[in-house]
Amino acid sequence: MNNLLMMHEKDNVAVCLADGKAGETLPVMAKDGSNAGSVKLLEDTPFAHKVALTDITLGEHITKYGELIGAAIRPIKVGQWVHTHNIEGLRGRGDKNE
Fold it and tell me: What digits encode the pLDDT tens for the residues 1-51?
């Protein structure tokens, strides 16, 4: 069975543990193995890629593993694939003081 894995309670994305298909509703598993809800995929999402757990607004920070990994460059809906087409990285950038 496919799941989404949320590693930290602050995360607004989860990792797809197998290829996911648009329309599938996947359970979200917390790091401790407990149930953290479910999300209906809006897009096909490859294994190990991120899925939005909440609606994310333009410019809002993306948090994975409890760490800031980027910011949304367009609005992202719950269940959308989160990748380079809708976020920009902020870590290690000298022009962004995040």
Answer: 579 999 999 999 999 999 999 999 999 999 999 999 999 999 999 999 999
Give residue 93's pLDDT band: very low, low, confident or very high (50, 70, 90).
low
Distance (Å, whole) CA 2 – CA 14:
12
Q: How far is CA 98 from CA 38, 47, 62, 67, 94, in A?
A: 30, 28, 12, 11, 10
Residues 6+ apart with CB under 8 A from 33: none
Domain 4-89 sits in CATH at: 2.30.130.110
The domain limits of the chain are 4-89
Q: List, edge to edge, every strand of the sheet that includes 61-64.
A: 61-64, 67-72, 87-89
